[in-house]
User: Fold Peroxidase from Carex littledalei.
Amino acid sequence: METRRSNLIIIFAVIALSSAAIGEALSSDYYQKTCPDVRKIVCDAVEKKINETAVTIPATIRLFFHDAFITGADASALIALPTEDAEKDSSDNKSLAGDGFDTVIRAKKAVEEACPGVVSCADILALATSCAIELSKGPTYTVELGRYDGLVSKASLVDGNLPGPDFNLDQLLNIFAKHNFTMVDLVALSGAHTVGFCHCSRFADRLYNYNGQIGATDPSFNPAFADQLKIACPANVGPTIAVNLDPYTPVTFDNIFFSNLVQGYGLLTSDAVLYTDTRSRPIVQQFASNQTAFFEAFVTAIEKVGRLDVKTSADGEIRKDCTAFNKH
Ligand code: HEM
Ligand SMILES: *[C@@H]1O[C@H](CO)[C@@H](O)[C@H](O)[C@H]1NC(C)=O
Ligand SMILES: *[C@@H]1O[C@H](CO)[C@@H](O)[C@H](O)[C@H]1NC(C)=O
Ligand SMILES: *[C@@H]1O[C@H](CO)[C@@H](O)[C@H](O)[C@H]1NC(C)=O
Ligand SMILES: *[C@@H]1O[C@H](CO)[C@@H](O)[C@H](O)[C@H]1NC(C)=O
Assistant:
């Protein structure tokens, strides 16, 4: 009798463990009982910060993308380690604006006051991204929730796993296909460059050293636009100088980015090729002429970003401080 009871307990324990290991699927009402107002709390914090600085919008969106592409949507990009070898310490980190990190830290503080210890930093970053997009007049979408925060953050995992601004279409398709993204996903997600900044160094070669030829300018630039860029970004300009990725509507999440590409106003090679390469050109043309089509494709793709390598209670935790692993 005694033995049978302990067997039963063991069986229950195994069932409980394995259901955590399989992972509860993400759901939009994940916090319905434990933190029903989480979206509003996060969006209020994001709005408050946007009111202080509009950089909050692009900084948050980009942080979500970088975090998810490296070891999944698990807030691993937020971890700060004294050894300075976390994801954020990789050479790619330099361009991640500090305001994205600050947005999550502030939203977490507000969430913790209302519902302590239940909402992951990964979910807060996913929500904050959606809030930032909505508050800049982009699409509104319901965010799937239930991610746990990751237990690994290593700078060495970043190198080679993020797309580069000088990538051609094959290189872009290749790195996105590793995460099961289609060409439509790639073009739609690149539309996030409808907001935010780009440092001159990221495209200086297109202005002054095209194809390694000193003085040559990439002919896929609109010539008048290239002349304007040469004024904003003189040769050998300092590393801190940046320009708007979307010169027309830099703080509005809209489809103007795609008409920019059609007109030769794309700053990065990786954006310009989406139009110059005839394989992706029809998608750019469609999004340029139909914002609804862009928004629908973007929402589909950004939800896929949020599903990348989701952690569960078996391989994650609910961090108390988004910038540090919990002490065990
Ligand atoms: C397709 C491949 C991509 C490449 C090669 C790329 C590259 C870049 C580069 C070089 C910058 C400028 C960084 C700087 O100079 O400070 C940038 C900015 C940005 N990227 Fe991307 N990106 C890509 C895809 C994405 C995706 C998928 C998203 C989000 C869904 C995204 C969101 C942003 C945002 C919002 C900014 C502006 C950041 C700011 O102003 O702080 N990017 N990206
Ligand atoms: C942000 O600014 C707008 C316009 O001034 C204001 O209506 C809104 O209440 C502010 N939001 C927050 C959360 O402070
Ligand atoms: C970015 O990475 C460099 C090393 O690659 C490091 O020195 C720097 O402190 C990092 N910056 C931030 C803001 O984490
Ligand atoms: C990749 O995407 C396809 C189509 O959306 C889906 O059927 C498949 O299960 C996905 N594979 C992985 C590994 O996520
Ligand atoms: C724009 O795209 C949406 C969504 O794909 C579609 O329903 C609509 O018919 C398109 N509009 C036009 C004018 O093509």
Observations:
- The two ends are 37 Å apart (CA to CA).
